[in-house]
Automatic annotation (TrEMBL):
GO cellular component, one term: extracellular matrix
InterPro entries: MetalloPept_cat_dom_sf, Pept_M10_metallopeptidase, Peptidase_Metallo
Pfam families per record: Peptidase_M10
Secretion signal, residue range per the UniProt entry: 1-24
A GO MF label: metalloendopeptidase activity
Source species taxonomy: Bacteria, Bacillati, Actinomycetota, Actinomycetes, Geodermatophilales
Record keyword Protease present: yes
Protein's recorded name: Matrixin
């Protein structure tokens, strides 16, 4: 299978939102350690710090909108990715945040806070997945199931293996929830690119750094405070 190192992308569209302090908050669970040095916080990656998206609500919904020709196994892989994030949020954010999966009826438009668009070849020539974020949150996540045209896999097969489809979905949903990339992109952390090649050969896991960074993003909710944007550009992995 072709390497995905340059095939994962994140696109952000920012709008003005108020600033506010956020104190460090640790996740309420134990997860595998990570080789990431730090994770960027998406809400602070705008060139203008006063213009960035972040979630001001704690009850998020997520759904899948799939193309008619999507393989059921690929659909199930994205469902697993959603379930994995649901479990991590339930276990690690002290019940302060929920992520609810809302199945869409066949042929209908998903109407959820986060919509995962599962479309073969959705990334064109450039990427396997992308999170598109706007002023009211990160509403659209694109996940492709095939290699970009003209860049076949190492074994000559254009279809991504199921572990990769699930990993792409996990990575992009992580962006939608507020996590940026790892500062050392060669890391095998879920939010880096090191896992996304054929030699890794397995779906990445949500690490302790991932959930601790998410707890930082939602520190206000875990502390029972009013919504406020985290101020740090990065969250250091311990």
């Amino acid at each position: 299978m072709r390497r995905l190192l340059a095939a994962l992308a994140t696109v952000f569209v920012f709008a003005a939102l108020p600033l506010g302090p956020a104190q460090a908050q640790e996740a309420t669970c134990s997860r595998p350690t990570s080789d990431a040095v730090a994770l960027y916080i998406i809400s602070n990656q705008s060139p203008r710090q006063s213009q960035a998206y972040w979630w001001g609500t704690t009850d998020l919904t997520i759904g899948i909108q799939a193309a008619p020709n999507v393989d059921p196994d690929d659909y199930a892989a994205v469902q697993r990715a959603i379930h994995t994030w649901q479990t991590a949020i339930d276990e690690c954010l002290g019940g302060a945040v929920t992520l609810t999966y809302v199945p869409a009826q066949p042929g209908s438009r998903a109407r959820t806070d986060i919509v995962v668009h599962l479309v073969p070849g959705a990334g064109g020539n450039f990427f396997a997945g992308r999170a598109e974020c706007g002023p009211s949150g990160c509403n659209n996540v694109l996940v492709s199931t095939t290699s970009p045209p003209g860049q076949p896999g190492d074994d000559g097969v254009a279809e991504y293996e199921l572990w990769a489809v699930e990993g792409i979905a996990l990575h992009e949903i992580g962006h939608a929830l507020g996590l940026g990339h790892a500062t050392n992109m060669e890391s095998t952390d879920l939010m880096a690119y090191g896992w996304a090649n054929s030699s890794f050969g397995r779906t990445p896991v949500i690490s302790q750094c991932d959930v601790d960074a998410l707890a930082y993003v939602w520190a206000w909710a875990m502390q029972g405070a009013e919504p406020m944007r985290p101020q740090a550009l990065t969250y250091a992995c311990s």
